[in-house]
Amino acid sequence: MYEQNISYVYLLGFPNLNNFNSLLFLFVLFTYFVTICGNVIIIFLVSMSNSLHSPMYYFITLISLLDILMTTDIVPNLLHIVLHGGGSMSLAACIAQLYVFANIETSECLFLMVMSYDRYVAICNPLRYNAIINKAFCVKSVIASWSLSFLLMLISEVYICKLDFCGPNVIDHFFCDFHPVLELSCSDTSLIQIQVSLSGIVFVICPFTAIIVSYVFIITTILNIRSNSGRQKAFSTCSSHLTVVCIFFGTLLSVYMVPNKGLNLGASKVLSLLYTVVTPLLNPFIYSLRNKDFKGAFEKNIYNFN
Question: What pLDDT score does 259 carry?
Fold first, then answer.
């Protein structure tokens, strides 16, 4: 029998892990700790090192901040769910988690698109780079990205809050994602689904398409460089960003753009775990390990600290 006007939800998490719950708990806890430390180090190095005061590193700092917010929104409750084989939270907290998550994901899509434009100008039009990618451009792009994400996601959340949630109150997931939350409603959700689909086109498909177009021009320009060293230097400036784009959009598109019938629930949870837990862990290493400026700034700060 369904509950009427449910006030809390129960998240199943990973009910079939049996004796592996402890291992998953330790993995997620370790990942969360390293993610926070790695992204805080990125933010610290960029803020303290004059050599990193450039638009590219400014956007990397914002990605690191979003990764911290993402893991903090998802992981603490995930740890509780894994440790106890499930967990409950109020419906209001569930919807709030969904709103924060949606804001972060859409903002990161837009920031990655802006970063691709930054790399496009740096490689395809280097003589005008400082004139185009200046401080004003950075500030305006960040304000526009956050404002657009905040307002459109707020519209979605207002629609969700107006729905009647009659139950059941069980979500077979480890966080309050969009489709699992809508399945709890006994109202007509067709309007909100259309609205979110349109938002997906604006915030996921359009940025991804813009990134692909940018890299077509970037790769074409790099291939026209005569010297091998010049080509390698040009490609190294965008290889980290391209790697993050492939991982982030690859998992995001697999979960939200593949038809539900084509992806079983277990695979969906694993992919969700990748982009909510693993990707924020990888980003600091991808951006720093292959970057000489980050390595130099890190060594300099360690030396000054000692």
Answer: 55
The tokens describing 47, both together, are: 């803020």
The ranges of the chain with pLDDT < 50 are 1-3, 262
Question: 212 CB contacts (<8 Å, ≥6 apart)?
Answer: none
Q: Which amino acid is at 98?
A: L
From the CB of residue 238, how many other CB atoms can be counted at a distance below 10 Å? Answer: 23
Half-sphere exposure of 7 (CA within 13 A, CB side): 0
Q: What is the pLDDT of residue 118?
A: 92
Nearest CA to 10 among 87, 84, 82, 81?
Answer: 87
Beta pairing partners, 10: 88, 170
Q: How far is CA 5 from CA 10, 35, 99, 166, 187, in A?
A: 14, 38, 21, 5, 12
Reading phi first (left if > 0) and then psi (alpha if -120 to 50, else beta), residue 116 is in alpha
The predicted pLDDT at position 97 comes to 93
What residue type is assigned to position 267 of the chain?
A: A
Give the separation between CA 222 and CA 120, rounded to whole angstroms: 11
